[in-house]
Specification:
The chain is of the alpha+beta class. Helix content is 36%, strand content 20%.
Length: 661
């Protein structure tokens, strides 16, 4: 087989496998077979770049990050739909349609809660994709749409021009995994799959969009040159034949049938792997649509039925507290089972103590419950006329319900957090952070491996990493002897990391990389740091009282001392080789301005910090000295206005050498 033929065969095979996996949900190839075929195609295309085409499977994530999105004027407007909120309003819509159309036939589809886009194909090849925008003008998000495996890059039939409309969404299963990963990283969680999908599709870097594993359901042909259709369902069947993932649909002959189908979609919404925010009712025959036309805002031949928000009373049986991977305590109300939006609800998120206090939610109360955005059960209000006389205000526990460590409220938020260094609920995040590049830098110990070790019961604290045995690690799924040897060697190497990295690896609140470095420089050993007083700690540059107290409290806890002892037993280094920080200028704040001839700005900063000084970027009454070089500007002027002493570069040199300027 010649190169061109092999490339073509590989592309067709990969396209078929992707279609079976992402559209039909019926995979026929293993991940290994797919990866090997894709690698072979990449090798051939690298050797023969003249044979690379935009519709190749290798080009799904090939775009460079953009500075901004370009505007796109839609050739066919992407209209919005008129909402109806009751079966009576649906009947009114039907009467208007039936007055102009004989023998009405409707198509009913779930209304996907995602981001509407238009996909453009020329000669069967995907050339551009754009968001809906205002219906007339959207944004070009072609490179991000290429990353969606359910979008075919090449169609079996090569029409001169085809434009289809679809809804990009994030599958519920992907959404939950994404939020778990964001929680593990300490990042803000996405509120719902739609927000996550919208944020992902509008990433300027397509590689980030690719990681979000978006999908799409197409539901309309906007334009099809070279093809004629008589009904909407014909267009959907055609799109299926072209390997698109098509919205599920049902033909209905009467408005009563539409109502039954709408009710069935609402009751079965949990079975879909995408969120819905209603159901769409459309005339099926395209000639009837053309006859009715559109208003300035909506097509007259379609309506979007929005499910009314259900609110039902339920009694709070108990309030339970869960501890997340970052140590945050999340209260949940355990309520009597109540049916909402197609599912039975028994647990309702209460968010935090402020939320409970504001709504005055107590065990024994009867509360009104609904699903926020049809997704997350929430308390609307408390029916206080049904409150038992002995119901007491609820307060979160002061000790972690998992490990018993003290609970503290975040200084900058409403969350209460477990402070335990070895809390089992936080174990995955704790060890992932401990092994991260800026901490102990244990190569190969990523989240997936950490999770495998935790699930196998091999580690319960970061200290256990240093006591792992080769046979146990090698027995893990997808590990093997060689990988296990490499991992254990990386763990062994990490024992020699500097104290500054170990301090950061502990994950002590307020103690980041910079604080870990200056503390290691100042005290030299962990033992000396453990003996330090609050006054000694706050004298260190960049260590304020909040950081100092957080460090002292962490060092004083039993779990922290157990972890430290475990690491000592393993032979982990607890000393620093960094140049010790002096104290000659401790407590003094300097501001540098203008051009220095003997130092770079960085060198001057490091020299001052080495003597215990703090270097700031702005002048205030608390500034000790301003060092003014050539062409000093507004900072020098402000220093003079505030009466802050000003030093020349020569004065700075004398000060660094221990002389008085």
């Amino acid at each position: 087989m010649d190169v061109k033929a092999e490339i073509q065969a590989l592309r067709e095979q990969l396209e078929t496998w992707s279609y079976q996996y992402y559209v039909l949900d019926e995979p026929t190839a293993s991940d290994y077979d797919y990866d090997m075929a894709l690698r072979r195609l990449e090798e051939l295309e690298a050797a023969h770049p003249e044979l690379v085409t935009p519709d190749s499977p290798t080009q799904r994530v090939g775009g460079q990050a953009l500075e901004k999105f370009q505007s796109v004027r839609h050739e066919v407007p992407l209209e919005s739909l008129q909402d109806v909120f009751s079966l009576q309003e649906l009947a009114d819509f039907h009467q208007r349609v039936a007055a102009a159309v004989e023998d009405v036939e409707y198509d009913v589809e779930p209304k996907i809660d995602g981001l509407s886009v238009a996909l453009e194909y020329e000669d069967g090849v995907f050339v551009r994709g754009a968001t809906r925008g205002d219906g007339q003008v959207g944004e070009d998000v072609t490179e991000n749409l290429r990353t969606i495996q359910a979008i075919p890059l090449r169609l079996p039939e090569r029409l001169p021009r085809l434009i289809v409309r679809g809804e990009v969404y994030m599958p519920k299963s992907v959404f939950h995994k994404l939020n778990e990963a964001r929680e593990l990283a300490g990042e803000k969680l996405f509120a719902n799959p739609r927000n996550a999908a919208a944020g992902s599709l509008r990433q300027l870097d397509p590689k980030i969009a690719a990681q979000r594993q978006l999908s799409i359901l197409v539901f309309n042909i906007q334009l099809a040159q070279g093809r004629e259709f008589s009904t909407h369902t014909e267009t959907l069947d055609y799109l299926k034949s072209q390997r698109f993932k098509v919205v599920p649909y049902t033909l209905c002959r009467t408005v009563e049938d539409c109502g039954q189908r709408i009710a069935a979609i609402g009751e079965g919404r949990e079975a879909y792997d995408f969120d819905i925010d209603g159901a769409v009712v459309k005339l099926n025959r395209l000639a009837d649509r053309a006859r009715l036309g559109s208003t300035a805002k909506f097509p007259r031949w379609a309506a979007a039925y929005k499910y009314p928000p259900e609110e039902k009373p339920a009694r709070v049986l108990d309030i339970i507290v869960q501890v997340g991977r970052t140590g945050v305590l999340t209260p949940k109300a355990l309520v009597e089972p109540v049916r909402l939006a197609g599912t039975t609800v028994q647990n309702v998120t209460l968010h935090n103590q402020d939320y409970i206090t504001e709504k005055d939610i107590r065990i024994g109360d009867t509360v009104l419950v609904r699903k926020a955005g049809e997704i997350i059960p929430e308390v609307v209000s408390v029916l206080k006329d049904r409150r038992p006389p002995d119901a007491q205000p609820y307060h979160l526990p002061t000790a972690c319900p998992i490990c018993g460590a003290p609970v503290e409220r975040d200084e900058d938020g409403a969350h209460f957090r477990c402070t335990g260094a070895e809390c089992p609920a936080q174990l995955l995040r704790t060890i992932t952070h401990f092994a991260s590049r800026d901490a102990m830098d244990i190569e190969g110990l990523g989240e997936a491996v950490v999770e495998a070790l935790v699930n196998a019961g091999l580690i319960h604290t970061p200290g256990d990493l240093y006591f792992l045995r080769l046979p146990d690690v090698a027995a893990l799924e997808r590990m093997g002897t060689k990988s296990a040897q490499n991992l254990l060697a990386a763990i062994e190497r990490s024992k020699s990391q500097d104290l500054s990295r170990l301090l950061f690896a502990f994950g002590i609140r307020q103690v980041g990389q910079k604080a870990g470095k200056v503390l290691a420089q100042r005290f030299g050993t962990l033992e000396a740091l453990e003996r330090a007083t609050l006054e000694e700690l706050t004298a260190v540059p960049d260590v304020g009282e909040i950081t100092a107290r957080s460090l002292l409290e962490w060092l004083g806890r039993d779990q922290s001392q157990h972890l430290i002892q475990r690491l000592r037993e393993a032979g982990v280094n607890m000393t620093s080789t960094l140049e010790p920080v002096g104290t000659a200028l401790a407590g003094q704040t300097f501001v540098l301005t203008g051009e220095l001839s003997r130092f770079t700005r960085k060198e001057a900063t490091e020299a001052l910090e080495a003597l215990g000084a703090k270097v700031s970027g702005s002048v205030s009454k608390k500034t000790s000295y301003v060092v003014a070089g050539e062409a000093a500007g507004s900072k020098l002027q402000k220093a003079n206005e505030l009466g802050v002493p000003v030093l020349s570069e020569e004065d700075l040199v004398k000060l660094l050498e221990g002389e008085q300027p």
